[in-house]
Design a protein that fits this description.
Elements lengths: L3 H15 L12 E2 L6 E2 L4 E2 L7 E2 L2 H27 L24 E4 L4 E4 H5 L2 E2 L5 E2 L15 H13 L3 H13 L8 H13 L3 H13 L9 H13 L3 H13 L3 H13 L3 H12 L5 H18 L2 H9 L7
Antiparallel strand pairs: 1-2, 3-4, 5-6, 7-8
Helix pairs in contact: 4-5, 5-6, 6-7, 7-8, 8-9, 9-10, 10-11, 10-12, 11-12
Length: about 325
């Protein structure tokens, strides 16, 4: 059995070999068994967790498990952090009408079940015109011009039609309605959780945040509290661009006095337009746990975000209705 130092050296060698371009001759990529040191292309039984070491066979892998465990766990944590702290793409993308980045603030945009489009409330509030240039009723969908629903039953019917098209927002929204007992639907937490999971499987990051909320709060929602599950789903949501979930992770690290990690979370959230995370960094600075440069950088990043989402049309909508506030 080899020493820990030799084991770590082999891990590093195999790491380099795993990253060698495969455009050339694969026979040149020779791996080393982390247990017995044997070299050769037949050393291909890889560690399933860290993907960094290889073995001759299952027997060598089993013998080496105890020595490899510490390195493996450290490497798995490093790989996880690489994913966790990577800046995600914008959560919503651009408005399909004005082509400006959709605001992160929930009241900054509206989902229309008639056509499945998420539209900024600047465009939703803007007057609509007919072919002759006359103003028309702007209660219709600003994208497909479908008249507004006339009943709760019609609204739910529209969502179910979108679900038939595997629209993840429709699944998540219906889950929210079941969770809160809205639009004539009974309050059903199990059904809500089922719909959230389906939406998440279809790629809706906000659904992961909803699931995290269910497991984090549990009590009173008919769902058992499970903080480990809650953390897992909040992380998935954060990696998908949900700034509220990212802020939650930052606050968790801050409570644990992991201020560097908290700062990293908050900064990523600010780049996505999360104002509470900006306030959190300001508070960290006031408490001596973040530098003036940290707060200045955060402020500049948030101002850059505002520059991407602001428009005269959106300002007019926000001035007309509080529910159209977008930052």
């Amino acid at each position: 059995m080899m020493s820990d130092k030799i084991c770590n050296d082999i891990c590093e060698v195999n790491d380099m070999l795993n990253n060698v371009s495969t455009t050339g001759n694969d026979n040149n990529n020779v791996s080393i068994c982390a247990n017995c040191g044997k070299e050769g292309n037949e050393v291909n039984n890889i560690c399933n967790k860290c993907k960094m070491v290889k073995y001759c066979n299952a027997a060598c892998k089993k013998k080496h498990r105890h020595k490899h465990k510490k390195y493996c766990e450290r490497r798995v944590a490093e790989l996880h952090d690489e994913k966790l702290f990577k800046q995600p793409p914008p959560l919503y993308g651009d408005c399909p009408i004005c082509f400006l980045l959709l605001p992160t603030y929930p009241s900054g945009s509206t989902y229309y079940a008639c056509c499945g489009k998420t539209i900024c409330n600047g465009c939703a509030h803007a007057p609509q015109y007919d072919n002759q240039g006359n103003k028309v009723d702007n209660e219709k969908c600003p994208f497909c011009r479908t008249p507004p629903r006339t009943s709760d039953e019609e609204l739910i019917k529209r969502y179910k039609k979108r679900m038939e098209k595997d629209d993840p927002i429709a699944f998540r929204s219906l889950g929210w309605y079941y969770f809160n007992g809205l639009y004539g639907l009974p309050q059903d937490y199990d059904k809500a959780l089922e719909l959230y999971h389906h939406a998440a499987e279809l790629g809706n990051a906000i659904a992961y945040s909803n699931i995290g909320f269910c497991y984090f709060n549990g009590h009173g929602h008919g769902i058992e509290v499970d903080e480990k599950k809650a953390l897992h789903y909040y992380e998935l949501a954060a990696m998908g661009g949900v700034v509220q979930a990212r802020n939650h992770l930052g606050f968790k690290e801050e409570r644990a006095a992991n201020f560097d990690r908290a700062l990293r979370h908050y900064m990523i959230a600010i780049k996505g337009g999360d104002a509470p995370s900006l306030k959190a960094i300001q508070a960290l600075h006031s408490g001596g746990n973040a530098t003036k440069d940290d707060y200045t950088k955060a402020l500049k990043v948030y101002q850059a975000y505002l520059g991407e989402i602001k428009s005269v049309q959106r300002d007019e909508a926000a001035a007309a209705k509080d529910e159209y506030r977008y930052y």
